[in-house]
Write a structure and sequence with these properties.
2 copies of one chain form a homodimer.
Chain A lengths: L11 H8 L2 E4 L7 E4 L1 H4 L2 H15 L6 E5 L7 H8 L2 E5 L9 E7 L4 E7 L8 E9 L3 H10 L4 H18 L13 E10 L8 E2 L2 E7 L5
Parallel strand pairs in A: 3-4, 3-7, 7-8, 8-10
Antiparallel strand pairs in A: 1-2, 5-6, 9-10
Helix pairs in contact in A: 1-3, 3-4
Chain lengths: 217, 186
Amino acid sequence: MFAAENGLKGDPRLKAISDAITVVPHFPKPGIMFQDITTLVSNHKVFKHTVEIFVDRYRDMDISVVAGVEARGFMFAPSIALGIGAKFIPLRKPGKLPGEVISEAYELEYGKDRLEMHVGAVKPGERALVIDDLVATGGTLSAAIRLLGELPNLCLRLHIVYDLLLQTYCGYCDSGWLERNGAEVVECACVIGLPELKERRLLNGKPLYVLVEPREL
Amino acid sequence: MFAAENGLEGDPRLKAISDAITVVPHFPKPGIMFQDITTLVSNHKVFKHTVEIFVDRFRDMDISVVAGVEARGFMFAPSKALGIRTKFIPLRKPGQLPGEVIAEAYELEYGKDCLEMHVGAVESGERALVIDDLVATGGTLPATIRLLERNGGEVVECACVIGLPALKERRLLNGKPLYVLVEPRA
């Protein structure tokens, strides 16, 4: 849902945020009207507004994890995590996180990419947010949701029982699901979202919260 | 200079920060003892200490720009910029920033890499900080300093969470003061 339809209608901070975004035509390739948020984060007052809006929204929602998507998500997510007293978890490109990771593939316009997260970065049942600068098709956020583990707890418990049975009677364990972290993604939040998402309040079954639409030239 | 020798000797926050770092041997290649700060940023209290120490230090230094280096620098620099009420400027890998950029190459152990910054991101004479998670040989930070200066900025200090002990002898990096919170964990 867009912030203006969810309690912030007419809030002057939203206009200031939108005005602070720079549109760069045909980047990174022809036809794309790139929404450049560097002019937002270099405007202290507007950057502060952006963080405040998210902190005000999530402060009392019992969130313990704020996950940010590399790299532009890293510009927003840590400050939100600090503001609401949650841990910040980076979701990174392949090969960047040391130690044991899980990964999810997602579609790009041409080809695929992957996102990785540390095993054990979140505990089962923790309530999590996913933060990125912009949501278009939702491919990246969907991968983030899968990494954090949107399995309903009942499903996780059933898999635990299934694994115990396998171990007892067959001597092996199919722990693929247990390797997922099992957090509950409460909402995905982005500064910018495509207008067609207004019709689609959920992304992979998860609520989506967006501050502004893309700017036009 | 290290924080413990610059007013924060015995500060329990420094020990907490050091303890929150995880050492990962032989990553990304054999022989490297990687200092993983993800366990620091996932510890809210310690992450908050890190921000507070930097904000307390730089709050009254008339800084107007905080530059952070992609990508781990992005985990630390924006919150510092917000804390001292300045602009945040990202320094990015090639091809990531749209529009007009300037670039600086720097040496890696094997080969070269490049860092880019928007033209006009800082105004002439603006006082700038550079923030990164770790400084080792200082390949990235000197490139950052050069980028900011080419845009007319004055780099006041480079600040990192972790710095190699060898840097204790070397208070300056490319002629700029260096401020570090802790040594690498063993």
